[in-house]
Design goal:
M1 Pyruvate Kinase, Domain 3, 21 strands, Pyruvate Kinase, Chain: A, domain 1, TIM Barrel, six-stranded mixed beta sheet, alpha/beta
Amino acid sequence: MRKRFAKILATVGPASAAPENLRLLHDVGVDAFRLNFSHGSHEDHARSVAAIRQVEKDTGHSIAIVADMQGPKLRVGEFETGQIELKYGEEVELYLGKDGGKAGHIPMNHPEMFAVMDAGHQLKFDDGKLMVTILSNLGEKMTARVDVPGTLKNKKGVNVIGATLPMSAMTKKDRKDMVFALSEDVDWIALSFVQTAQDVIDAREIIGDKAKIIVKVEKPSAVEDLHEILNHTDAVMVARGDLGVELPLEEVPVVQRKIIRAARSLGKPVIVATHMLESMIDAPTPTRAEASDVATAIYQGADAVMLSAETAVGRHPATAVAIMDRIIGAAESDPEFWNYFRSRPLTHDATGEDAISISVRSIADMMKCKAVLGYTLTGSTVQRISRERPPCRIVGLTPRRKTASQLALSWGVLPIVTHDPSNFDDMIEIARDIAKEEVNAVSGDKILISAGIPFGIAGTTNTLKVNTID
């Protein structure tokens, strides 16, 4: 059993893809693995899925698998000499084309840009290292002024600032990758380049109920449409990489906090990602600023924090996980961590799930309960309990392997696959046994048990039982 409540999501890559490395990462703290479909073949990802499921089988611990779609990638075309120099204050021409670029002329094969960009909009190149401001747009040619100079090389990435592009969040590659990932029975699909709620609706038509959806918020337009997007997704990721390029740098921490609060208010898991322990790609220890960054996400109420290149290609993947585990544990040991949740009341719906979840929080706090064990078919009741942040372990009991793996991303939840009880006494007996085995409950400890009666029917949570371990 993990001693912490927030979860760790780690990216699989060359440094971690071997089965023995995946097992090691899980053992030192990983609760969920991210497969980055921007890299690797379908065969590579299939091997990773099989290896992760084997770790599940060997350890008896549910693990979430997240398939992260690449999304559209905007890039400049090719230059005759491989690169050009952009000089401060000079005017350059951007034209619709794949190649033929030369000094003062930049090819870009993205008609969507030319369709929406106006004077005053900006383009950033190479992860924000260079920037131009549009002066005029003639349809297939734009004139721009260089504001941040430097060397621009072939096929470097482009970020559009100030305009919403008329393009889908899913490319043909994404659709193929998504169908493949679903055939491998992944638990979550992460969507890149989401601009509006319609992007999530379109993805749901393909995904259906085969997996849950994580929206990666990395576009300012997604921040503007945040509440509508959250209504259609199952979870959200604060993708601070592109978000930090397309928003003013000083706004990123504010937006991070806004997203975490909005997601938690709806009871949907929120993941904070990008550059969390970036220096550990090479170094054996993080900077103090990085440690503070991870702790800040925990104090703000994130369900999970993510490692990217640190575990995908870094030199110290297991150490990075172990250090992140320690940082989370230290933050959660601070009494002020729990005071924050007590001081921020949530709004509630007039449903059995919310009535149970409010009661769980109050009773667990008052009676110092060891754990709350929730029987669930779809995971929804356990997720509502998780959003209340009760000061005890949450055990999600479900007959579905899929539900258990999906719950592995939720704050404080220990998912357990078990059969539905046959009657009320059986319910109590199963819960008591699991509490003893999985959360080290001993004689005199109090536990809470939530369930829906009759058993095995989704959406019927109507029972909350306080029980004392004998």
